[in-house]
Design brief:
The chain is mainly α. The chain is built from four helices and no strands.
């Protein structure tokens, strides 16, 4: 996208495509998710999904109100110490927020 589009246009484009994926995933998980995406224990699906939701919310300002299952699962991720330790800002090479 480079310099052809404004920051807002880039975010809107990203939100559109994230919404397509989240809509499909919400439909898939709505009746079958446990505390986490595939049950009551975090599994590989959660290891993949957690950073996707994190980036959608924090990088692309995604409103999660249309995705209650994903929002609930994300809240469960926030309680996991290993997932918290893996956050980008907690990495040794993360840029300082000066």
């Amino acid at each position: 996208m480079g310099d052809k589009f404004s920051r807002d246009e880039k975010i809107a484009w990203s939100q559109h495509h994230i919404a397509r994926g989240f809509t499909a995933l919400e439909k898939l998980l709505k009746g079958s998710a446990g505390k986490y995406a595939t049950g009551d224990e975090p599994l590989l699906a959660d290891v993949f999904l957690a950073p996707q939701i994190f980036a959608a919310i924090n990088r692309f300002q995604m409103d999660m109100s249309a995705y209650p299952t994903l929002a609930r699962i994300n809240e469960a991720y926030d309680e996991l110490p290993a997932f918290q330790a893996a956050l980008p800002a907690r990495q040794p090479d993360a840029p300082s927020s000066a």
